[in-house]
């Protein structure tokens, strides 16, 4: 996610050890593998409401229903799926007499190394880092001059299986 250096004003869109995309591709891959396409559409709707330097959004159920193509009754079920996977956290706040929801997009949606055990079961794991112990998928490690290295911590990586681009 994006951070701004307060001294220079420079915007850093890539976290250490992470790959950045405007939309959380690792979370989409997990939700697609689970067969939860409505939850994937809901996450896309929430992410599209994010500002440049925040992870908090608060669209109404009517807005979510219109943009994600969901019925108002199915929104809560799909929010529960996103919370169970650890991709969002929901908090309630009072605005006048109404109680509204705030949705915080979690770093696990962008960085597959931070996913909880429930979501990790649906990842396409092909390697493991010896230094930090994280399970890795394609794009999180690469071949160095002497060994295969984890981009996040620089540790050596044991590759379980090679994946060709055609199989993904």
Topology overview:
Elements: E1 3-4, E2 11-12, H1 25-34, H2 37-48, E3 56-57, H3 61-68, H4 72-85, E4 88-95, E5 98-105, H5 117-120, E6 127-129, E7 135-136, E8 141-143, E9 148-150, E10 157-159
Antiparallel strand pairs: 1-2, 3-5, 4-5, 6-7, 6-10, 8-9
Helix pairs in contact: 1-2, 2-4
Task: Tell me what you see in this structure.
It is a single chain. The chain is of the alpha+beta class. The protein folds into two domains: 19-109, Winged helix-like DNA-binding domain superfamily/Winged helix DNA-binding domain (Arc Repressor Mutant, subunit A); 124-167, no CATH class. It has helices spanning 25-34, 37-48, 61-68, 72-85, 117-120; strands spanning 3-4, 11-12, 56-57, 88-95, 98-105, 127-129, 135-136, 141-143, 148-150, 157-159. The longest helix has 14 residues, at 72-85. It is elongated and about 60 Å long.
Please indicate the percent range of residues in DSSP E strands (runs of 2 or more).
15-25%
How are strands sequenced across the largest beta sheet?
3-5-4
Instruction: Determine the mean pLDDT.
Output: 81
Overall spatial form: elongated
Q: Using only CA atoms, what is the Rg? A: 18 Å
Question: Total helix count?
Answer: 5
In the residues, how many domains can be counted? 2
Order of helices and strands: EEHHEHHEEHEEEEE
CATH class of the largest domain: Mainly Alpha
- CATH architecture label of the largest domain: Orthogonal Bundle
Q: At the third CATH level, what is the topology name of the largest domain?
A: Arc Repressor Mutant, subunit A
Straight-line distance between termini: 25 Å
